[in-house]
Amino acid sequence: MWWETGVRARAQAGLFAVFSELPRLVGAALAVSWRADRLRTLVVAATTVGAGVLAAFGLLAAQRVLVELFAGGPTADKVLAALPALVTLAAVTALRAGMATAMGYAQNGLSPKVDREVERGLFEVTTAVRLEAFDADAFADDMERASRGADSTTGLVQASMNLLAGLTGVLAVAVAVVVIHPLLLVALLVATVPNGWASLRAGHLRYQTYAAGSVRRRRLWLLHRLMAERDSAPELRSYGLRSFLLDQYDRVMGVETGIQLALARRVTTTTTVGAMIGGFATAVVYALLGVLLVEGHIPLAAAATGVIAVQSAQRSLTVVTFQMDRAYTEGQHFRDYTGFMTRAAEYLPEPRTGDVDRPVPPQPLRTVTVDAVSLRYPDRDTAAVDQVSLTIEAGQTVALVGENGSGKSTLATMIATLRTPTGGTIRYNGRSTDDWDTDALRARIAVVTQEYHKWPFTAATNIAIGDLTTTPEQDRIEAAASRAVAHSMISDLPHGYETLLDRTFAGGQDLSGGQWQRITAARGFLRDADLLIMDEPSSALDPRAEDALFQSIRDRQGHGITILITHRLANVRHADRIYVLHHGRLVEAGTHDDLLATGGRYAELFTLQAAGYDTRVPLPRQTAAAGTSAP
Ligand SMILES: Nc1ncnc2c1ncn2[C@@H]1O[C@H](COP(=O)(O)OP(=O)(O)OP(=O)(O)O)[C@@H](O)[C@H]1O
User: Fold this and answer.
1) Is this complex's ipTM strictly greater than 0.90?
2) Domains assigned to the chain
3) Is the pTM of this model over 0.80?
4) CB 401: neighbour CB atoms within 10 A?
5) Which of 40, 201, 233, 453 might form a disulfide with 106, Cβ 3.0–4.6 angstroms?
């Protein structure tokens, strides 16, 4: 699939190409760990290296013990001579155990702090990026992998530390071995490298499979949700979608199972080949030690130490390869995280280019000027809003009307500063957004969007989040609810304003579509905004509630600016100015009476709707494609 290309290209990168990135990733993860908790990072690093160095002392002490025990003379004398080395060996072993305990303790405390550091960083970015980010190619897919990558940071830090421990151990053993006999070092390498290679290759195969399956995983996750969640449950049943969705699940899982089986086969083959070569090489090493001993090139004690060294090195190298594999895999996930953070940074609000030191002083909004504003969504051939110009003065209520897809909501989100125009400018009190402090400007604007969100909080909080800049007092919340015809409905809920509006929690309640719409309108009213934008606020309301809501909206006339978007044209008759959009262009503007007199698009839509309520007039028929009425 075209959207998988980038992911596949990366997954197909060679083992060494990807591996060369590891030091940088380990560095980045350690930097995160350092930021999260310096002391614990230091303790973990110090104890890790310390334990490795002690391993070398342990090996040399063991060799000393063997040398003394294999020397000539009475046994009691030999044991006595070996005693200092034995004591050193015991002390080294005890110290290593103590260091391991300290490392475990520090690491346990470090993990939650590292988790918090990365996860918070991710949320700081996802909540700050411009809305355009969510329209960008594969942004959601990248975000899914980034959250997995955030979970990998602790794993990468741990793997890096353990890798350090393993490497120090190997290095220490190598030094000890060279001290005993340099040839043993070659023997060590021969015995351990094949297993290491196999383990790294297996890790690479696993990551390739994971990366190439990210779209499939999202699809599975979607199917899980569709089949198990409350929102989709009624339609799933009424349209009989059960077998359709189960079929899709079987198909995706069929592919997934096939891929996992193929992966298991390749990993098993690789590790088996590695183990076979490694086993053969170990046998050769032991044979070599035997020959060296028989030929008298090394004493018996050195040969015995050599056997211990090979075993110890193999243990350390197993740790190294295992941890390298882990660091590699976790590192790739962590790279998804860092890559996403870099990509998302491009969508962070740009620094203002206006007079940054002297932003517009706090002042109410008096005019909003939309000047030749356009917006084209990514990958769309035509502009959703095309060269629209209009001016709205304080106290005015204006309406944006037009057929579905004509660009009303897009224009409103630009006026609300939620989207940046791709052409033209919007000025507030004659000053561009660059001159304003964005938060201060947004605090003066309230938006009730068409696609409102049902926040899983109490009814009171659902309204209070309309203005969290001040303490949400109960009487203000209730006043806003009353203006949105929501007060008595909320009072009738089992716990009134304290009722949790999420059925997925014990004791939680759900509301009807119209009831939710009243709550969202109340949210918009709570902030006593200079500019209130209401996008289809009454599409689900009953006639009485609709009438009351529009009464509240009309009450703003003469005070604040209100921008109203609705298809119920009777409700915009009172607007000071009505703007008609068609295919993104502003095609008509005027009062209700002006526009009716002109006999254009607005008049046509209004007459069509009004005729539906006039029982004396037979219902007009219209051709759907042209959208025009015909007798
Ligand atoms: N996020 C988006 N990405 C791509 N295209 C979009 C996006 N949002 C809207 N569009 C397109 O932009 C055009 C204008 O959409 P918009 O939502 O502004 O219309 P509208 O007039 O509010 O419609 P409605 O009356 O149905 O609410 C439509 O063609 C729509 O398909």
Assistant:
1) yes
2) 21-345 (1.20.1560.10), 367-444+529-630 (3.40.50.300), 454-527 (3.40.50.300)
3) no
4) 25
5) 40
